[in-house]
Amino acid sequence: MISCEAFRTRFHASTEDPSLLDHLRACDRCLDFAVDVDPDVLFRSLGGAELVPPGGVDAFVSDVMRQVRVRDAETAAAARHRVISWPRRLAIAATIAAGLTGTLLTYRANAPTVAPQPIARIAHASAPVAAKALVTKPVVETYDSQNATIVEVPGESSDDVKVVMIFDENLPADL
Amino acid sequence: MSAELHVMMPTTPSVEPDDRQLVQTIREGDADAFELLVRRKTSKVYALCYRIIGNGEDAKDIAQLVFIKLWENLEKYDASYAFDTWLYRMVTNVAIDFMRNRQSRENAVNSNLRLVKTAADAEQTVVVQRKEVEHVFNDISDVLSPKQKTIFVMNQMDDLPSAEIAKILGCRESTVRNHLFNARKLMQQQLQKRYPEYAQLWRER
Ligand SMILES: [Zn+2]
After folding, report:
1. Which helix (H) or strand (E) holds B20?
2. How far apart are the C-alpha atoms of A32 and A41, rounded to whole Å?
3. Predicted-complex ipTM score
4. What are the start-end ranges of the H helices in chain A?
5. A57 at the B interface (CB within 8 A)?
6. What pLDDT sits at residue B180?
7. Most CB within 10 Å of its CB: which of A97, A172, B53, B189?
8. Kindly report the CA angle at B28 between B26 and B30, in degrees rounded to 5?
9. How much is the pTM?
């Protein structure tokens, strides 16, 4: 910083000389003199100095970095919530598949077994059983989604029950 | 021998990366570079917030908010512009918002409660002291709109010319000059009412 003597010699109204402005803002002894020469520097005298926030720069910077990390963690958590992970999707799909299989097995176990009958009687007596099998509804009748991947598990014959696996990130976990 | 070798080794002075380089490093995922940037800009940002807001604790909170917004929006920075211009724009936006909210809360509560000095005081000889000037400024600048005050602070205390302020605020230079003119006029009126001895000193140009 320039000396008070140099400042007082060189200072003039409307100066933009950085060395003079630096002195003006740092030296209390010359403030009165400067305002007398150029009243307009009254409030200019307040600026320039690099101020330190309460608590100091180190504490300020650590506070900022901590808040940044918290925000990043919150953003990451929100993103995880939106996108269900693949293992979780598979778990949901497996649960549905197990549910479907279980339901169908239960149905088959409870279905009346038809004893061998003479051909002439089968045509007559088995009609209600066949009708009952036709009216059985699947657990999931329709599934309408833009995002779902539906995989049909192939059966051994056309009589086998159809098992499908639904992969959908929008599927509620408690289905 | 080793001393001789040491002398002959070319010394590569460690060059501090400039603001643009730092931003690039941060964008590549280096959080340490962001810490360095915050450290580099803390005093400037805090000082500007403090001058606009006039209260250390609030200025600190606002300055921290500025840096968090900086972190969140760093992708939007266009490196063809000076980094400080972009940073100052962020500071002024956040500080002006804060001031507007505070003004709407405090409006009409404090403005008439301050001590109004008598005309006789104007005859007193004033020995200008920095603390007192700061107090007077905080007191009378309340009459300015947040934008007027921000422009006045940047021009008078940060020595920014009106063209640079216009770039920061994204407005015309004539708008900045109008705000400066009106700010001076309003402050002069307040000085005459409340601090006549300073009104004598700080004449309207
Ligand atoms: Zn001095």
Report:
1. helix B19-27
2. 10
3. 0.81
4. 4-10, 18-26, 31-37, 41-44, 57-82, 86-110, 119-125, 127-135
5. yes
6. 97
7. B53
8. 50
9. 0.67
- The correct CATH number of B18-110 out of 3.20.20.70, 1.10.3260.10, 1.10.1740.10, 1.10.10.10 is 1.10.1740.10
The model's pLDDT over A131-159, given as tens digits with 9 standing for 90+, comes to 445 555 555 556 666 666 666 666 656 66
- What single DSSP character describes residue B91? H
Judge: A35–B201 Cβ closer than 8 Å, yes or no: yes
Q: B9-53 pLDDT, tens per residue?
A: 555 566 789 999 999 999 998 989 999 999 999 999 999 999 999
Look up residue A141 and give its two tokens.
């009748």
Residues of B in contact with A59 (CB under 8 A): none
**A-chain residues near B156 (CB < 8 A):** 43-44, 46-47
Token pair of B54 as six digits: 């006039």
* Bridge partner list, A167: A149
| DSSP 8-class letter at B108 | T
**All residues at 6 or more sequence positions from B161 whose CB lies less than 8 Å from its CB, including other chains:** B155
Fold for domain B128-205?
Arc Repressor Mutant, subunit A (1.10.10)
Confidence of residue A126 (pLDDT cuts 50, 70, 90): very low
